[in-house]
Amino acid sequence: MNAWDYFVDLFANVRADWLEFLQDHGLASSLIVFLDSLIGITLMLMFVFPVVIIFIWLERRFIAWIQIRPGPNRCGPFGLLQPVADAAKVLLKELITPAKGDKVIHWLAPVVMFFTAFMVFAAIPIGRAGFDGQNMGTLADLDIGILYIVAIGSLGVFAIFMAGWGSNNKYSMLGAMRAVAQLVSYEVPMVLSIVGVLLIVGSLKMSTIVDQQTVPFILLQPLGFLIYFLGAMTELNRSPMDQVEADSELTSGYFTEYSGMKFAMFFLGEYINALAVSVIVTTLFLSGWKGPFFPVWAWFVVKVFIVFMVILWMRGTLIRIRIDQIMAFSWKFLLPMALINLFITAAEVLIWDEWMSGWESFPWPFIFVNWAIAVILILLWSKVFFKLGGGRVEVREVRAGYSQGYGADLQAPVS
């Protein structure tokens, strides 16, 4: 037994003794569940907040390295204390509420954003430790785990819309409406990409999804992984998909009117969402905590950081996409690809169960087939996508006379 297994077994026994102690003292079952949940939430906070602080520092240093500049290097060695200095700064800033805004909604928006982002981690497994038939590697190993995650993750758009509405600001409202449009557009292909995984596993339970991965599902579902990852990038509102808060168009988007700790809660919410996406991708497509030689927690953390680094890499190297291009990319590219991937996966499940040895064995044939299909579909559909007008910028010839005044006749000959 390694150190991690010993720690988890110890936690399982301590938790069982704690619950038995509460039951022996005649406490109501609802109160016992509340106290047990309170301890679980505390442990989640102990995991999420340190990782988010590391993410903030890592993003600044990595983006600075990409852009050939020093990055944070004043607060502590290598700027490690910069997130702490930023936290102290926002705590001391004044909380400003727009005079004609809806004060209650304006105040509730960052709270909803923060807690909806945090609630996702209740169903995320970080290890496999059984005790009385329960998985102690997660706070709530729900039978509908992935459904819970998708449902809770969709609630963040309400916080963004509340922020835009409560601010009584046109820029904020435009940013909020863009967020609603993006979420509705990208949630459909994202869920369809997850369904492909569920068809293979036959369960909505997150720990079962990890247990069934004899091979990481990124090999079996390369197209599903790509669709989910790109959709998640858009829902995170991170560059190059950050039109919700495009500074060149909307100042700061939906949180233009926020300052101090209210702004900090939106800021933390975005990084917690980035951590949640990294964790979900790790669980669904990278076989979760599984790996040789090292403890399960080490594999889990390494995979999460690799996914987050890919997100940072895309942010530091790709330019911002226009809002019409973002919407067209979802409906004209990701959605058809997600439907095709779903039908192909369903056919493979039937073939493998009926004529081959079942999913308990290693499905080598489908790995090569699915990668070949993914490459061919992407190449062919990208040409169809541009023919349908997605992402193409139509530029008409601007003649010299047009620069002399707005509304000049474009058909006039050049003088």
Taken together, the total number of domains comes to 1
Q: Tally the helices: what do you get?
A: 15
Task: Tell the overall outline.
Answer: globular
Q: What is the ordering of alpha helices and beta strands?
A: HHHHEEHHHHHHHHHHH
Structural class, by secondary structure, is mainly alpha
- Rounded to the nearest angstrom, the distance between the terminal CA atoms is 85 Å
Strand order of the largest sheet: 1-2
Strand content: under 5%
Give the helix/strand layout.
Blueprint: H1 3-24, H2 29-66, H3 82-92, H4 103-119, E1 130-131, E2 134-135, H5 145-153, H6 156-166, H7 170-201, H8 206-211, H9 217-220, H10 222-235, H11 247-250, H12 260-285, H13 296-317, H14 323-355, H15 364-387
Antiparallel strand pairs: 1-2
Helix pairs in contact: 2-12, 2-13, 3-12, 4-6, 4-12, 6-7, 7-10, 7-14, 10-14, 12-13, 14-15
Describe this structure in words.
Helix 3 crosses helix 12 (about 260-285). Strands 1-2 form a two-stranded antiparallel sheet. The chain is mostly helical. The protein is built from 15 helices and two strands. It is globular, with a radius of gyration of 24 Å. The N and C termini lie far apart (about 85 Å). It has one domain. Helices cover about 65% and strands about 0% of the residues. Residues about 400-405 have low confidence and may be disordered.
